[in-house]
Design a protein that fits this description.
This protein has 221 residues and is an alpha+beta fold. It is 15% helix and 23% strand. The longest helix is centred in the first third of the chain and has 33 residues, at 22-54.
Length: 221
């Protein structure tokens, strides 16, 4: 036998007494060649199937979703029926609220609280950020805490409220860049304390009592 192109071919054996002419030899040789080629083809095919079955196959696809009904929300619960009242406070005095105002995240996403104070009535005082406020001006600062702050020095100028809320409040009012979670479960409520600095003096035209509006909004930053 001989080997050619990696296919083994056998020469047909000739028994004693059997005719051995050229035609018979060629027919036997062709039969063996065909059988060998078919066998080799089947082996190659079998190896190909085996390799395909064993080959690792990984594919990926993108799965996406957009959340719905995402909203910021704030609910303010005052300790008094008509809001918070400081009562009577002398000119030039500084005082801290005696009861906490509960602020709840009533939305569906964690948020920071931004705050503003407005006083748009007739003969109204003007909010300022520093002490002493001066004539016809007041300063109102805010602080979140589970307990009343021990000193008015806690309410630094950065936490004083203005007529418009800050657009970035995460590092203000003792929030510490930690967002308040939604709901009334622990972590969903914050307790707000206010620090009021009274005007040092008043003009005759704006010496009446003041009714201010505290606004709190939910923010992403």
């Amino acid at each position: 036998m001989w080997s050619e192109n990696n296919i083994t071919i056998g020469v047909p054996s000739i028994r004693p007494g059997e005719p051995c002419d050229e035609v018979t030899l060629k027919e036997g040789l062709m039969k063996r060649i065909i059988e060998s080629v078919l066998t080799a083809g089947l082996l190659v095919l079998g190896v190909g199937i085996l390799q395909k079955a064993q080959a690792a196959s990984t594919d990926t696809m993108t799965v996406s979703v957009t959340p719905g009904n995402v909203a910021y929300g704030v609910t303010i619960s005052s300790p008094y029926p008509s809001g918070y009242s400081f009562g009577q406070v002398n000119l030039g005095a500084v005082t801290i609220s005696t009861s906490a105002i509960t602020v709840t995240n009533s939305g569906s996403i964690s948020e920071y609280f931004g705050m503003a104070i407005s006083n748009l009535g007739t003969n109204s005082w003007t909010p300022v950020a520093s002490n002493p406020p001066g004539a016809d001006h007041f300063r109102l600062a805010a602080w979140f805490s589970t307990a009343v702050p021990a000193s008015t020095t806690t309410f630094v100028d950065a936490n004083a409220l203005a007529a418009a809320a800050n657009t970035t409040s995460g590092n203000l009012f003792n929030q510490g860049n930690v967002k308040t979670a939604p709901g009334t479960t622990p972590g969903g409520n914050e307790f707000l304390w206010l620090n009021l600095s009274m005007p040092t003096s008043l003009t005759q035209s704006i010496s009446g009592s003041q009714n201010m509006t505290l606004s709190i909004d939910g923010q992403a930053n």
